[in-house]
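This section describes the prediction task in plain terms. A model, or a person checking by hand, is given the sequence of a single protein chain and must write out its three-dimensional structure as a string of C-alpha cells. No templates, partner chains or ligands are provided. The sample shown here is typical of the held-out split.
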Amino acid sequence: MPSKFAIGIIFTICLIDSIGFGIILPVMPSLLMEVSGTELASSAIYGGWLLFAYAVMQFFFAPVLGNLSDAFGRRPVLLLSLVVLGTNYLIMGFAETLTLLFIGRVISGIGAGTMSTCNAYIADTIPVEQRAQYFGLLGAAFGLGFIIGPVIGGFLAEYGSRVPFFATGAMAFVSLLLGFFLLPESLSKENRRKFEPSRANPFAALAQMSRFKVVFGLIGVMFLYNLGHHVLPTVWSFYGIERYDWTPREIGYSLGFVGFAMVIVQGFLIRVVTPVLGLRWTGVVGLCCTIAGFVGITLAFEPWLAYLAMIPMALGGLTSPSMNGIASSQIGPDQQGELQGTMASMMSLTSIISPPLMTLTFGSFTGTDAITYMPGAPFLLAGVLTVFALGLFIRATQGFVLSETATDKQ
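The expected answer:
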C-alpha cells in the first residue's frame, strides 16, 4: 500500500492544480474582453460558453477515464490528465481568437480527470471510516490553492492578461514530473477489472451506479448542489467588478479569503465535526451553511458584507467530503474509479447547464436593458437549487450507517 509520502504527493498535485486554476480567475474577464472586443456583460456570456464546451467533453469522457483507471491503474490516467491540462493553458495563453480559446477548453475537457483520479487514489489507500477526512484534505488543497492562486494571478495580471496562463501551464507540467518520478500505483492488480467500452459512457456508468440506492440518490444531490455552486467560478469575478468595482487584485484577495476559510474547514474542522456528527449530519450542516452563504451574497450591498457571507459559504465545504465518504463506502474496490468518473461526469453536466444559466442571469439583471438591477440574482438562484439538494440529501441518506456495504445496498 502506498505510504503517507504518496498521499503527500497526491495532495501536492491537487494543490498545484488548484493554484493554477485560481491564478487565471482574476484575469479571465480581461482576456475575454481583449480577445472578443466586447464589454463586460457580453464577455461574461462568452466565459459561460467556454465552461460549457469544457463540461460537454468532461461529461462524455470522465466515465472513460474512470473505467480506464479501474482497468490500468490511477497513475497513468493521472499523468495523462496533467499533460492535457498543461497543454490547454498554453493554448489559451497564446490564443488570439475565441475559436482557439474554445479549442483549448475542448482539449482540456477530454482529459479532465485530476481530482476524480486523486479521489479514487484515496479510496484505494484509506480505510472507509477515514475517507471523508482525506477527501476533505484534498478539498483543503483546493482551498489552499485558492489562497495562493488568485493572489498570484492578481499580481501577474499587472504584466499582462496572458502571463497567468503561462504560469499555470508551467505548474501543470511540474505536477506531471512529480507524478512521473515520485508517485507509486495505488490500485493492486487483483482489484482491477477488464476495461469494457460498453460501460465507458455516462449513461451506462449511471446505470451501474443505480444498483446502489444511496449512491444513486447522492448523485442527484451532487447534481443540484453543483448546479448552484458553479455560480462562484462562473460569475464571481464579473459580480465583483459590477457590484463593487473591484480590480483584478481585489478579486484575487476575495478568492484568497475564500480559499483560506476552505482550508480551515476541510483541512481541520471536518476532522472534528465528522466524528461528532457523523457523515450524514455533517452533510446536512454543510448544505445549510451553503444556503446561508448564497443568500448573504445576494443581499451584500457592501464588500465587507460579501466577505461576511463567505464564512458560511466556506462552511459549506463540509458537504462534498461527507457525500464522497458516504458514496465510496457503498462501492467495492474495483469500481471506485467508475464511481468517481460517474460523479465527475454528473458534475460536468451541471457545468454544461449552470454557466450559461448563471451568466445569462447575471447579464439579464446587470445589462443596459435589465428588467431590474440585481447583480446578486445568480446567487439567489443558486440558493434555491441548494434548498432542493438539501431535501434530496435528507431523503437519500435516511437510515444510512457507515457499516453498510455495497452488497447490502444493491
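For orientation: DSSP finds 16 helices and no strands in the chain.
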